[in-house]
Amino acid sequence: MRSMLFVPGDRPERFEKAVRSGADAVILDLEDAVTPATRPQARRDVADFLREGVRDVPLWVRINPAESEDALVDVASVVGARPDGLLLPKTRTVADLWRLDHWLEALESWHGQRAGSIAVVALVTETAHAMLNAASFATPPKRVTGYTWGAEDLAAEVGAIANRTADGEYEGVYRIARASCLLMAAAAGIAAIDTTDVEFRDVAAVERRARASRRDGFVGKLVIHPAQVGPVHAAFTPSAEEVTWARRVVEALAQPSSAGAVAIDGRMVDRPHLRQAERILQAARMDDVSYADSTRDSVEKGGQSP
């Protein structure tokens, strides 16, 4: 999923528009975008759309933090409508993921769904507690397919006045959070998804940052406006030149005479380059596969490219 587009759960008139935006997935938000007063109706609207709305792309739901009173109510309200996945915010340690996993196992069974059919992506840097327990995230439940990160809640917790420099780049502690998300995901063997950008009119800036995300190892980005979808997809879609290089690497290293290393265009390539090449080809294949041709329960865990 190159892009996952947020839409407020209390704005049902925007749900179908979000699905038609071209995003690879849509996140119906029950957390920050929804006030406590409107959350009960938002749960009903989200569940109704999951049952009856357009399902041309995967539909995810961001629930409230696991330790909150709202979390289990959110989960119980939507599982019967079969969301493709849940986004868990403010995850403090892997124990929060195991708690959510247990809730989902029980509710999937109650609704006659296959155990593990609902995927989970976790926001793993939004609290200082999570940052100090980063190692715990190396062993998540099987249904957890990705980690992502955020800077706004972390800034509020540490008391920062701002989390970006004057030119829009993140300050040091948030760059650590971003790097930690990459390392947590790599240790767990799952996808790393970069956080949102606040710009939506400056599409060049969005694409520039998305290309940096892909270069660093992220497989996609969270987006907050349909205008961000195009530049994000352009950044995360492998170019024809990359695909050609990747095929040459795979073919060359498959030869018995390669001995684990070969020269291509005057550069030596070996097993780490083979992994990069395979990820590029995997990402290229995913870009060509429509959601209608995939199964609800098939969630890609890899796909990073150099």
> Rg to the nearest angstrom?
20 Å
- Structure summary, number of beta strands: 10
Mean pLDDT: 88
Please describe the biggest sheet, giving its number of strands, its sense, and whether it closes into a barrel.
8 strands, parallel, barrel
Structural class, judged by helices and strands? alpha/beta
Tally the helices.
11
**CATH superfamily (homologous) name of the largest domain:** Phosphoenolpyruvate-binding domains
CATH level 1 class label of the largest domain: Alpha Beta
Shape: globular
Separation, N- and C-terminal Cα atoms: 17 Å
Which bin fits the share of residues in helices? 40-55%
What is the H/E string? EHEHEHEHEHEHHEHEHHEEH
Count of structural domains: 2
Low-confidence stretches: 289-306
The CATH topology assignment of the largest domain is TIM Barrel
Strand content bin: 5-15%
CATH architecture of the largest domain: Alpha-Beta Barrel
Numbering strands along the chain, what is their spatial order in the largest sheet? 1-2-3-4-5-6-7-8
